[in-house]
Amino acid sequence: MRIVLVGPPGAGKGTQAAFLAGNLSIPHISTGDLFRANISQGTELGKQAKAFMDAGNLVPDEVTIGMAKDRMEQADAENGFLLDGFPRNVAQAEALDRMLEAADMKLDAVLDLEVPEDEVVKRIAGRRICRNDSAHVFHVTYTPPKQDGVCDVCGGELYQRDDDSEETVRTRLEVYHTQTEPIIDHYRAQGLVVTIPALGKVSDVTDRAMAALRGEHAA
User: Fold this and answer.
1) Which of 22, 87, 116, 120 has the most neighbouring CB atoms within 10 Å?
2) Which residues contact 57 (CB under 8 A, 6 or more apart)?
3) 218 versus 103: which is more confidently predicted?
4) What is the pTM of this model?
């Protein structure tokens, strides 16, 4: 299957992408992984991306599109893939359409993870990270530490990243609504969009998505 996964920040795309790709035996292709791989391997596209990033600029669509195209042409993606973070805007979606058409392929579904905006803010703004080890992550509501502000694992100080502040989260949501959300209408016109309620347990959301891909009614 060839799937695009979309949803606002905090919707759990990365987590769901990993589970869905595993269940479907297809590679999980994320924009973040593409950038890291190309930069670490020193590819021409990686060098271009790094130059823009080092200058504090956004990486142009054509560079991102080139990385995605190269990755989708690898052998493990021959029978399908799950795209996470690409396409990020309508121009990228149109480029993906052209790529697939040229290869005589098509998307099977666009999964839209739906989460209320207030829940997104609550999920992200409530995160607290240990200064000693960023792998130690807590949440003031869902997984609170035993002692406020102190890591259960190592006793380090817990803090809120600047990217996780409510103001920053709302700015990120605005960018999502302006730039990425329009691709949902683009794909809805092609009859590809399936909306998945993304509240509740991770496993329940995965079950809903798998049921939708099988054409079953999601509970």
Assistant:
1) 87
2) none
3) 103
4) 0.89
